[in-house]
Amino acid sequence: MLRQGLYRYDAIARLQDAQLKRERQMGDYIRLGPVGTAFLPSQLPRVLLVDEIDKCDINLPNDLLNLFEEGCYEIPELVRRKDECESVDVQTADPDVFATIRGGRVFCREFPFIVMTSNGERDFPPAFLRRCLRLKMPDPSQNRTALERIVEAHLKKGKDEKRWTRLQEEVANLVKGFTTQGAEETADIATDQLLNAVYLLTREVKPEKDDRESLKALLLKGLNEED
Predict the structure, then answer these.
(1) Of 98, 129, 160, which residue is a domain's last?
(2) Are residues 150 and 86 in the same domain?
(3) Do the bridges between strand 105-107 and strand 30-32 make them parallel or antiparallel, or are there none, so unpaired?
(4) How many domains, the chain?
(5) CA-to-CA distance for 114 and 109, rounded, in angstroms?
(6) I need a surface site. Which of 109, 119, 220, 227 has the fewest CB within 10 A?
(7) Under 8 Å between Cβ of 50 and 116
(8) 98 in the same domain as 7
(9) Interior/surface letters 20-54, b for 16+ CB within 10 angstroms, e for the rest
């Protein structure tokens, strides 16, 4: 799992080119993944997001420990050929950006800023947790002010001030209706469902009045609710 995040080596393409006697550089078969790109040497720290790490392969947290400790990794396919080609240009996770790898090894100059999110669906090894600064994000589903700010941040952009002022009362009513359902009712309803409901019910082309309640019920339906 970690290797896929570090880099990918296209052995099949290389074999096909060898059979067809096409001459290509070794770097043409290697692309760094998001993790591998984040650890490239740079003047400023890069930022890496690992979303929902609790859904990843069970061995990934332990595999990351060595990377976090050393701040470097190897690409074995290049290490084996370092006597033939000491430096190789490879593709990165950034579009149309290449990086030069020397001796098949990557050493970060500035350690990347790594953000990992988890829904708490499983525990992690103590050694891994000791290397993390853990922050528990509050649940906004019962905080009306927080939800109104989230809606404003997502939906106010592109709307003029007068139109947004006219929509604020309707948005406030939708948010109020969401929060008054109670924590148990909204436990399995995501904030983006509320955003979708607010967007569809407050846009210029609105659903008919008779359809509004049924649409709102559909958009704010919990994952555990039966049809």
Answers:
(1) 129
(2) no
(3) unpaired
(4) 2
(5) 15
(6) 227
(7) yes
(8) yes
(9) eeeeeebbebbbbbbbbbbbbeeeeebebebeebe
- Predicted TM-score of the model (pTM): 0.72
Q: Give the residue-averaged pLDDT of 175-199.
A: 72
Q: How many CB atoms lie within 10 A of CB 206?
A: 13
Residue 196's domain comprises 140-219
**Quick one: 6 and 107 in the same domain?**
yes
Question: How far apart (Å, rounded) are the C-alpha atoms in residues 93 and 78?
Answer: 18
- Rounded CA-CA distance 183/189 in Å is 10
* In contact, 153 and 147? CB cutoff 8 Å: no
| Run of H or E residues at 102 | strand 98-102
State which of 105, 129, 153 marks the end of a domain: 129
Encoded amino acid at 27, one letter: G
Asked if residues 44 and 73 have their Cβ atoms less than 8 Å apart, the reply is no
Per mean pLDDT, which of 10-19, 62-71, 98-107, 181-190 is the most reliable? 98-107
Whether 125 and 158 share a structural domain: no
- 3 state DSSP class of 7: strand
What confidence tens digit (pLDDT) does each residue in 96-125 have? 899 999 999 999 999 999 999 998 888 898
